[in-house]
Amino acid sequence: MTTTTEQKKTLDIHQIKQYLPHRYPLLLVDRVLDWESGKTISAIKNVTVNEEFFNGHFPHKPVMPGVLMIEAMAQTAAILSFLTMDIKPDENSVVYFVGIDNARFKRPVEPGDQLRMDVEIVRVSRGIWKYKAVGSVDGKVAVEADLMCTIRSANDASQPAGQ
Length: 163
Description:
Order of helices and strands: HEEHEEEE
Main location: cytoplasm
Largest sheet: 6 strands, antiparallel
Number of domains: 1
Shape: globular
EC number: 4.2.1.59
Protein name: 3-hydroxyacyl-[acyl-carrier-protein] dehydratase FabZ
Family: Belongs to the thioester dehydratase family. FabZ subfamily.
Function: Involved in unsaturated fatty acids biosynthesis. Catalyzes the dehydration of short chain beta-hydroxyacyl-ACPs and long chain saturated and unsaturated beta-hydroxyacyl-ACPs.
Low-confidence stretches: none
Helix content: 10-25%
CATH superfamily: Hotdog Thioesterase
CATH class: Alpha Beta
Number of strands: 6
Distance between the termini: 56 Å
CATH architecture: Roll
Strand order of the largest sheet: 1-2-4-5-6-3
Oligomer: single chain
Strand content: 35-45%
């Protein structure tokens, strides 16, 4: 009897840096756990007390800012887009937010947590990618949002999206 197990597609931090231009302190994806081209991606951000933002948010009760949780999910979405297109961006590629809808924050993310980001492509139309993103800690939803992004050449970045 032969059993086949589907091999997970993972990316380590060195591979992630090939898909994202972000670097410390704004690189917010530590590992891709699995992905399926054109469909979904799961990734993690290990949240440590050494994060620069904890110095001011908040010294007495460190909590990861919601905007950074959204950014971490957007970075995960960008990786999925590049993997789906089967390209690695060059120094001229820029991924921009076009919109954030239905953002909800359900629980705080604190030092020691591992934020798991699950992102699904909802649709791609006229250069706009729409995703459903959920961030969770220990299986409990911490943040969710509908994200929209576009990939542009840095030379065209001053033009409005969809032009």
